[in-house]
Amino acid sequence: MRQPDIEIYLKDADHHAITGWLSQALGPCSEWRQKGQTYKCDVDSAAGVIPLTWLPKAVGKWHSLYLDSPHTPWPDDLACARAAFAALGVEVRCAPGSWQEDESDETADRWIRVSADGEEEIVWRTS
């Protein structure tokens, strides 16, 4: 089932490399607009406008990339994480499925790690 949005976390990712990858995967990005620590842009894809949010160092060295649209080439966070790792060669983490606000802390701490070592489920305490 296609997720309504996608969020992945990239370790030590270069902002320019992210923009290049997204432009190739989705279409050209508008200029990034900075608002506080957050950056936003829009991609005008064949499926419509996809709003993007980049939050550097959202969790330690981990940067958050949020795609606020169900109209991406990836059906879920894991597919996007795999594509990001393949394109950028940096470790990527994502939730194993759609996250719900009322989930237990134990469930919320379950993540998928995509790296040169392969894929594995890990416990990542982000708070």
Structure description:
The protein is of the alpha+beta class and 127 residues long. The chain has one domain (6-123). Helices cover 21% and strands 39% of the residues. The protein contains three helices and eight strands. It has helices at 15-25, 77-88, 105-108, and strands at residues 6-11, 33-35, 38-45, 48-59, 62-67, 92-94, 110-115, 118-123. Strands 2-3-4-5-1-6-7-8 form an eight-stranded antiparallel β-sheet. The longest helix is centred in the middle third of the chain and has 12 residues, at 77-88. The mean pLDDT is 89.
Task: Report the biggest beta sheet as strand number plus sense, adding barrel if it closes.
Answer: 8 strands, antiparallel
Tell me how many strands there are.
Answer: 8
User: Strand share of the residues?
Assistant: 35-45%
Radius of gyration, whole Å:
14 Å
Overall structural class, as computed from helix and strand content, comes to alpha+beta
How confident overall, as mean pLDDT?
89
End-to-end C-alpha gap: 28 Å
The proportion of residues forming helix, as a percent range, comes to: 10-25%
Low-confidence blocks of residues: none
Count of the domains: 1
Order of helices and strands: EHEEEEHEHEE
Number of helices: 3
**Large-scale geometry:** globular
| Widest β-sheet, arrangement of strands | 2-3-4-5-1-6-7-8
